[in-house]
Write a structure and sequence with these properties.
This protein has a four-stranded antiparallel β-barrel. A hairpin with a 2-residue loop joins strand 3 and strand 4. The chain starts with 10 loop residues before the first strand and ends in a 9-residue tail after the last strand. The protein contains no helices and four strands. The protein is mainly β and 58 residues long.
């Protein structure tokens, strides 16, 4: 996980497969700096970020 504290209220879009993306608030950033786990409804979804997370430079 990265050293900075992610703003958990920040909404990001993650790419989870060649045909699917999801959008929701950040739960956890990592393990790679451009990956995040987000909350979508009652599920947690992990994927590569399509939108930048505040405080990060990719």
């Amino acid at each position: 996980m990265n050293d900075f504290r992610a703003d958990l209220s920040e909404i990001v879009t993650v790419f989870i497969s060649p045909f699917h993306s999801a959008r929701g608030p950040i739960v956890k950033v990592g393990p790679a700096p451009d990956e995040a786990t987000i909350c979508v409804g009652t599920s947690l979804v992990h994927g590569k970020c399509l939108t930048l997370i505040k405080g990060m430079s990719l």
